[in-house]
Amino acid sequence: MNIKAVIFDLDGVIVSTDECHYKAWKMLADEEGIYFDRTINERLRGVSRMESLEIVLEKAQKSYTDDEKTALAERKNNCYKEYIKSLTPDDILTGVMDNLEDLKAKGIKIAIGSSSKNTPIILKQIGLDNYFDAVSDGNNITKSKPDPEVFVKAADMLGMPYKECLVVEDADAGIEAGKSAGMMTLAVNKAQGGDMAVENLGKAKITELLGL
Ligand code: BG6
Ligand code: MG
Predict the structure, then answer these.
(1) CATH for 18-84, among 3.10.20.600, 1.10.150.240, 3.10.20.30, 3.40.50.1170?
(2) Which run of H or of E encompasses 113?
(3) CA-CA distances (angstroms) from residue 31 to 11, 73, 98, 111?
């Protein structure tokens, strides 16, 4: 193990926006008369907005045109943005700041690798804009996780070889993406398939897991 950079997913790893996403999709589904529940919501973890919409629409009774789909995604996002307006630094998940500070102190580069186009807004809300060495997000990628693009771009921004990067993820799609990029993976929460796994970052010191 020779890890020199850690790339963090944002939603569900740094901050818990899951409930905001769930409530916004639920609002849209209810308005459209589409069945939606928390089990379906779990499938949206790490998946881009438009791909998430396709999953939500699997239960729809009618088909939608591309223009209608764009409008639906915008309605969901407007609702979601109202919810994330109330995020503050207190919403940073347990153990995250301790780990970030510890990594920085040991000279390990830290980056964000998120599918979300709302990443800049969220980082600002929680006071972590200008904190990371690189931010790769839904605004600079064309392919969503499980494609490795978002992590590859983060490593390129840092100038780090992929095999020297660790990806921290709460989504199966994100773990798959990290592995496809040739990176080591740490699964948090319920994510499956990581090289290492912890329940949450409050229960682990990443530098210790890496033997640093
Ligand atoms: C991911 C979330 O981080 O971002 C997904 O896990 C979400 O649930 C995706 O769909 C896209 O987010 P946004 O903010 O661009 O709609
Ligand atoms: Mg996530």
Answers:
(1) 1.10.150.240
(2) strand 109-113
(3) 25, 13, 41, 37
Burial class (CB in 10 A: 0-12, 13-18, 19+), 83: middle
Ligand 1, atom 16: nearest CA belongs to which residue? 49
Tell me whether strands 134-136 and 109-113 are parallel, antiparallel or unpaired.
parallel
Question: Over the stretch 128-155, which tens digit does the pLDDT of each residue have?
Answer: 999 999 999 999 999 999 999 999 999 9
Tokens of 102: 């510890």
Q: State in Å: Cα 182 to ligand 1 middle.
A: 23
What is the pTM for the complete model shown? 0.96
Which residue is closest in CA terms to ligand 1's atom 11? 116
Q: How far is Cα 6 from Cα 45, in angstroms, rounded to an integer? A: 20
pLDDT in tens, 49-87: 999 999 999 999 999 999 999 999 999 999 999 999 999
Q: Greatest CA separation found in the chain?
A: 55
